[in-house]
Amino acid sequence: MKIKGIKHIFFDLDHTLWDFDKNSALTFEKIFEVHKLQLRASDFLKAYEPINLNYWKLYREEKIDKMSLRYKRLKDSFDAVDYKIEDAIINQLSSDYITYLTTYNHLFDGAIELLDYLHQHYDLHIITNGFEEAQQRKMDNSNISKYFKTITNSESAGVKKPNPKIFNYALQTSNALPEQSVMIGDNYEADILGAIDVGLDVILFNYHNFNAEPHIKQVSKLKDLKKYL
User: Fold this and answer.
1) What is the pLDDT of residue 128?
2) What pTM did the predictor assign?
C-alpha cells in the first residue's frame, strides 16, 4: 500500500544502498595483501564483523571517538584470532582501510533502478553516521551522488543517529516537514526508532531478516520499496 503525502525520502547509506559488507571484505583482502599479513581475510572477518558493530554502537552513543573506533575494532579483532601484530601496522591498516574502502563500490541489488524511479517523484536525501571524507567518495565513485539533493552526516550535524538533532538538522537543510518525509535504513535503533522519534514515517530495509516489530513497514529487497512509494 502506497504511503500518501510523502515528498522527501531520507536514506541511510551504508548497509542500505551501499553494500558495506561486500566492499569491506574486498578492502580487507586488499590491505592484507599489501601488508603481506599471514592471515586469511575471511578468518579475520568472522571476528571483526560483530566487534565492528559493537564499536559503531559505542560511537553512536558518544562513548568513543573516531580514532578509537578505527584502532580498537582492528586491535580487538586481531587479538580475537590470536594474530600478533604491531600497533604501528594496525594504525597503518586503519588508514589504508579508509583509503581503499571507497575504491570498491558495490551497491545492493536494484539500487540504481530504484533511485532512477524514486528521483522522478520525490526529493531524495542521505542521513549517515559514516565519516564525512569517506561517505562522499562512496557516493561519487558508485555514481549515486546525482540522485540526492542533500547529504547529512554526523560530523556536519554534530551528533549521530538516533539523536533527534541529526534528523532535525537534515529536515531543516532539505526544507522538509516530518509529516511529508520517510526514512529508509537497515539499523532498527539508529534509523527506524530515531526517525520515529521526530515524526518521520519509516521503512526498515531488513535484508538481514531479523525479527522486527510487525507494525514496522519493512522490505528485504530494495525493489520492494516500490510497493510503498
Assistant:
1) 97
2) 0.93
